[in-house]
Design brief:
The chain has 431 residues and is an alpha+beta fold. Helices cover 15% and strands 35% of the residues. The strands form 7 sheets. Strands 20-19-18-26-21-27 form a 6-stranded mixed beta sheet, with no helix packed on it. It is elongated and about 100 Å long. The two termini are 65 Å apart.
Length: 431
């Protein structure tokens, strides 16, 4: 009544006392009416009022969507859902398109993001819902509706050297190539969308060998008979200068038995082991001093039952030759092979006479060809020349510490998984 009373005085109304008494009576009548009309009819408390103790308690947990923001437009089709959840015992994410169809996906290991199983549709509207539930059992939700961009005109093709169900050797790196150079600032984004699942569990990491190629190797050779799946979820992913990934990539391969070849220049012998046991010793002839073989660890890149070596362009008319070759297995881009060399069988095991290759007899060449596969490792020791990294698949010619430096993401050792200890799959890296 004080505010009304003062207002009447400011107006200078000479009849302010009469109005004051009339207004007070009117207020009293309204108050009585409210008192009689808002009770529960049984003399209890008013039905329209509640004590604080009767209000439902707010959930302890809280959730918020960071990206994509609500009503965002032109969102890349590669987008994931980034969110925060506090005081949450359990967190779930649901993504639906404009027709209400759910999109498959999974939470990242850090519990801070959710990634769809594949690239989203272009020009589609989606609604994301994050639900966080605390130890009080009460859920808290956050939603964000956004629209993806139109299909871009500039797209980068992503390809794998290996195909599904291919069986390879224990030294085989996983090789992924891009049709356009990936700028350094974008390589961590790409690598965070690349996962490797191996069974049994094995630790490994991706390594950029060039702006257009990235490879993966485990810390030790792949375990024999492993199953390996690798994925690149780069469909719609921004790759710099207005370019986007064309599509996701997924490949599943198998690792064969552990066949390892070791060549010692001192003894002029190759020792072949399978799953840890020596199965054959083979006399060899390596590169002569003017064209020495490379010392280091290489991997069989390709196998050619028959081919022709033509070295005239490389060695010139005096040293060059053109020769038919059987049972050739490429080791370097520079032209070093394991191959049958019937013309040097008299020197094999005694003298080096080749132009850098590992010469073996026709019979031993046929045996090696039948018992090895692409990805099998070979280590050559004691020659006059060291293997140059990059001259072939030289991933195993680098120490683990060197290899890790080629990753665009920080390396996090998997101390809880040691080679040979677990049969459970492992996925690396964690985004």
């Amino acid at each position: 009544m004080r505010a009304v009373h003062n207002q009447l005085i400011r107006r200078g109304d000479d009849r302010r006392d009469g109005r004051r008494r009339g207004f007070a009576a009117a207020v009293l009548a309204v108050t009585l009416a409210l008192a009689s009309g808002c009770t529960d009819g049984g003399g209890g408390k008013p039905a329209g009022w509640q004590n604080g103790a009767d209000q439902p308690a707010a959930p302890k947990a809280a959730a918020a969507i960071v990206e994509p923001r609500a009503d965002a437009k032109d969102v890349p089709a590669s987008t994931g859902i980034t969110f925060t959840a506090t005081e949450a015992e359990e967190t779930s994410v649901e993504l639906k398109d404009s027709a209400g169809a759910a999109v498959e996906g999974e939470l990242a290991a850090d519990g801070k993001s959710w990634l769809p199983a594949g690239a989203l549709k272009y020009g589609e509207t989606y609604t994301a819902t994050v639900t966080a539930t605390g130890d009080d059992g009460k859920p808290a939700t956050a939603t964000s509706t956004f629209t993806t961009m139109a299909k871009p005109g500039k797209q980068v093709r992503i390809s794998s050297f290996l195909g599904d169900d291919q069986v390879v050797g224990i030294g085989m790196p996983l090789i992924v190539k891009f049709s356009r150079a990936i700028p350094e600032d974008y390589r961590d984004d790409v690598q965070s969308r690349m996962t490797v699942t191996s069974s049994p569990a094995q630790e490994g990491i991706w390594h950029w060998v060039s702006p257009t190629e990235i490879r993966y190797r485990p810390k030790e050779f792949w375990r024999a008979d492993s199953e390996v799946t690798y994925r690149v979820q780069a469909g719609g992913l921004p790759l710099g200068d207005g370019w986007y990934g064309r599509a996701d990539l997924s490949v599943g391969i198998k690792i064969g038995p552990a066949v390892v070849m070791t060549v010692d220049n001192k003894t002029k012998r190759m020792t072949v082991t399978k799953n840890g046991s020596v199965i054959k010793t083979i006399p060899v002839s390596l590169g002569k001093k003017s064209t020495p073989s490379s010392s280091g660890t290489m991997v069989v890149i390709e196998k050619l039952r028959k081919t022709v070596f033509d070295t005239f362009e490389e060695l010139g008319p005096e040293e060059g030759y053109r020769t038919k070759i059987d049972y050739a297995q490429r080791l370097t881009w520079g032209g070093e092979f394991i191959h049958a060399a019937p013309w040097s069988e008299g020197q094999q095991g005694r003298v080096n006479v080749s132009h850098g290759c590992v010469n073996v007899s026709m019979a031993n060449g046929a045996w090696l060809f039948a018992n090895t596969r692409v990805g099998d490792p070979i280590t050559v020791k004691g020659t006059e020349r060291r293997l140059q990294n990059g001259n072939g698949w030289t991933d195993w010619n680098m120490s683990w510490e060197q290899y890790v430096k080629g990753s665009a993401l920080p390396y996090e050792p998997q101390s809880d998984v040691a080679p040979g200890e677990s049969g459970e799959p492992t996925v690396t890296p964690t985004s």
